[in-house]
Amino acid sequence: MRLKNAVVIGGSIAGMLSARVLADRFESVTIVETDKLPLKPEIRKGAPQSVQPHILLTGGYQILEKLFPEISSQ
Ligand SMILES: Cc1cc2nc3c(=O)[nH]c(=O)nc-3n(C[C@H](O)[C@H](O)[C@H](O)COP(=O)(O)OP(=O)(O)OC[C@H]3O[C@@H](n4cnc5c(N)ncnc54)[C@H](O)[C@@H]3O)c2cc1C
């Protein structure tokens, strides 16, 4: 049985991934994000650490591939 609605506060990496996992269990998932999300990757006010270089480790990438199989072709 699917539950009704889940709410995730914050639409950055943790919020987006949480929403993806919750979508398997809930009929709808609402992400509440205070910042305006850009259409392409860019530095934004809500994630000031995005000015710093980030590294994605292999384990994290493998999880992303499981959740978003199309990510390799992006
Ligand atoms: C210098 C530096 C280097 C780093 N390097 C790495 C690295 O190499 N590899 C790595 O894995 N991690 C790295 N990190 C850590 C990484 O940046 C954070 O762990 C990650 O960004 C946290 O993601 P998050 O989604 O939890 O939070 P954030 O990315 O901080 O997102 C929080 C979101 O919540 C939103 N928000 C805030 N308040 C509200 C509100 N009241 N209502 C609604 N929305 C709200 C914000 O706008 C934002 O979109 C680094 C961090 C720093 C500072």
Tell how many strands the DSSP assignment holds.
Answer: 2
* Biggest pleated-sheet summary: 2 strands, parallel
Alpha-carbon Rg, integer? 14 Å
Task: Please count the helical segments.
Answer: 2
Give the key terms.
2 strands; 2 helices; two-stranded parallel sheet; single chain; alpha+beta; binds flavin-adenine dinucleotide; 74 residues; 19% strand; 27% helix
Question: What topology emerges from the helices and strands here?
Answer:
Layout: E1 3-9, H1 13-22, E2 26-32, H2 58-67
Parallel strand pairs: 1-2
The structure holds flavin-adenine dinucleotide.
Flavin-adenine dinucleotide binds next to α1.
Task: Tell me what the structure shows.
The chain has 74 residues and is α+β, with helices and mostly antiparallel strands. The protein has one domain. Helix content is 27%, strand content 19%. It contains two helices and two strands, in the order E-H-E-H. It has helices at 13-22, 58-67, and strands at residues 3-9, 26-32. It has a two-stranded parallel ribbon. The longest helix has 10 residues, at 13-22. It is globular and about 40 Å long. The mean pLDDT is 95. Flavin-adenine dinucleotide binds at residues 9-15, 32-35, 46-47, 49, 52, 54-55.
